[in-house]
UniProtKB/TrEMBL annotation:
This is Putative mitochondrial chaperone BCS1-B. Belongs to the AAA ATPase family. BCS1 subfamily. It holds the Pfam family AAA_lid_At3g28540. It comes from Triticum urartu (Red wild einkorn). The lineage of its organism: Eukaryota, Viridiplantae, Streptophyta, Embryophyta, Tracheophyta. Residues 445-493 are annotated as: Disordered. GO terms for biological process: response to stress. InterPro entries: AAA+_ATPase, AAA_N_dom, At3g28540-like_C, ATPase_AAA_core, ATPase_AAA_CS, Mitochondrial_chaperone_BCS1, P-loop_NTPase. Residues 445-479 have a biased composition (Basic and acidic residues).
């Protein structure tokens, strides 16, 4: 065994010496052109013989940051949990100290599988000395990711895998970025502050079907960039939120922002002096944002366009100049769906109002306000969501009584939430809610009795018959069951009878 081993070592040493001698002779005797051709041929031969290819992605390109490197870093951070064999990890935190970011440590390897192909990642560091001719001093560290794969997957890696990583990293960044809410100041400038509103669709007190329809519409909107471009329309979507005060319009806006990770631009029209200032404000909005105009029916006097044209035709040139400097409905509509609507992409426009009937029909048509969302009074389903939010319960002995009363009276989600917040004791909070609802029912009955007596006094025929007197207990809503109270009177003893009638109001 030993002689054979020694013979092998001797043969290898002799071969190595021979190769070194051949290389030395080749360098001395062969022209440089021939040597370069031989080196290229040998490199090509090695490339054909090996099965592995490698792509290097450095942290910087010259003085600029390499965006692909940052995308790879963000993507691999989501894959670390699936690679339990890694022995060394790097942990850091950004602006949010409570959130830790886990990443690869130099020298570690990680395997990732994409559509059946395996890609092996490694973080490599190397020191590069400074350039003395440019005043460079000490060495600096260069970090790079190297991904190795079978050579038959080279096209897949370049055309599919790396673009997939970049797109995934962008989605991660969009979901994790801090949100801001902007207010308009000094005529045509926005002032931002951090948006920390915790409202989500899970905590929103709204019927499930209506909530799900909104979520589905939002998810469909953000995926249709190519669709909007193909049909020649601006990539935007308009929502009208209408209903009584305290029904959750502002909470819904915050939930939409948190769901899409969009910034909010809260436009106060009373602070804008002219259409030109309005245009500058709206053009200054970023993509992936929500424009909100609350209480649009009363924040500013927006005349119908027919009225604008008629008044301008009657006014003098001086008055016309002043009128042109004011914010008008035409100026607002020109941004909503006119030429200026194409100044940005991926935008949501939300108008809110307590009185939908006061708005100009031109503002409500599809293409401007694409989806009309009625924010109605509290329903039994909304009450259960609020009870779970504030007291973490799914059922209580008072539920049947509370839900029966909610169907008979009008109460806003804000009123219910206020009562539930007053006491940490669930029994006490729900008992207080029962008392509030009973008081509202009593007040409603008293109002009906008073109204019926007034009607009787005004009856000039003498037969004292009340016809068609009906007091709605709830506003009409999208598929929301509402209680209405119908008043009738018996002719014989003039006794007033109050009947509770449940009606199903549905919108088209």
């Amino acid at each position: 065994m030993a002689p054979s081993y020694d013979k092998t070592i001797a043969t290898a040493a002799s071969l190595a010496a021979s190769l070194m001698l051949v290389r030395s002779l080749a360098n001395e005797l062969l022209p440089s052109e021939v040597r370069d051709a031989l080196s290229s041929a040998l490199a090509s031969l090695r490339s054909r013989m090996t099965w592995q290819h490698t792509i290097v992605i450095e942290e910087t390109e010259g003085w600029s940051s390499n965006r692909v490197y940052n995308s790879v870093k963000a993507y691999l951070a989501t894959r670390i949990n699936a690679n339990i064999n890694m022995q060394r990890l790097r942990v850091s935190s950004g602006e949010d100290a409570e959130k830790m970011v886990v990443s690869m440590e130099a020298g570690e390897e990680m395997a990732d599988v994409y559509e059946g192909a395996e890609f092996k990642w490694c973080l490599v560091t190397r020191d590069v000395s400074g350039d003395p001719n440019n005043g460079g001093g000490g060495a600096r560290e260069i970090r790079s990711y190297e991904v190795s794969f079978n050579k038959r997957h080279k096209e897949k890696a370049l055309k599919e895998y790396l673009p997939f990583i970049v797109a995934t990293a962008k989605a991660i960044k969009d979901q994790e970025r801090s949100l801001s809410i902007y207010m308009n100041e000094r005529y045509d400038e926005w002032s931002p502050i951090g948006l920390q509103h915790p409202s989500t669709f899970d905590t929103l007190a709204m019927d499930h079907k209506q909530k799900q329809s909104i979520v589905d519409d939002l998810n469909r909107f953000i995926k249709r960039k190519d669709y909007y471009r193909r049909i020649g329309k601006a990539w935007k979507r308009g929502y009208l939120l209408y209903g009584p005060p305290g029904t959750g319009k502002s909470s819904l806006i915050a939930a939409i922002a948190n769901h899409l990770r969009f910034d909010i631009y809260d436009l106060e029209l009373t602070g804008v002096d002219s259409n030109s200032d309005l245009r500058r404000l709206l053009v200054g909005m970023t993509n992936r944002s929500i424009l909100v105009v609350e209480d649009i029916d009363c924040t500013i006097e927006l005349k119908q366009r027919e009225e604008e044209d008629e008044e301008q035709s009657k006014s003098s040139s001086t008055e016309k100049k002043k009128a042109e400097d004011k914010v008008t409905l035409s100026g607002l509509l020109n941004f909503v769906d006119g030429l200026w609507s194409t100044s940005g992409e991926e935008r949501i426009i939300i108008f809110t109002t307590n009185y939908k009937e006061r708005l100009d029909p031109a503002l409500l048509r599809p293409g401007r306000m694409d989806m009309h969302i009625h924010m109605g009074y509290c329903t039994t389903e909304a009450f259960r969501i609020l009870a779970n939010n504030y007291h973490s319960i799914d059922y209580h002995a008072t539920y049947p009584e509370i839900e029966k009363l909610i169907e008979e009276v009008t109460v806003t989600p804000a009123e219910v939430a206020e009562v539930l917040m007053r006491n940490d004791d669930t029994d006490v909070a729900l008992h207080d809610l029962v008392e509030l609802l009973k008081l509202k029912k009593k007040d409603t009955t008293a109002e009906i009795t008073t109204e019926s007596k007034k009607t009787e006094k005004k009856d000039a025929t003498g037969d004292r018959k009340i016809e068609g007197t009906q007091v709605d207990g709830k506003k009409d809503g999208d598929g929301i069951k509402t209680g209405s109270v119908q008043v009738e009177e018996k002719k014989d003893d003039k006794e007033v009878v109050v009947k509770n009638v449940l009606t199903e109001n549905r919108s088209s």
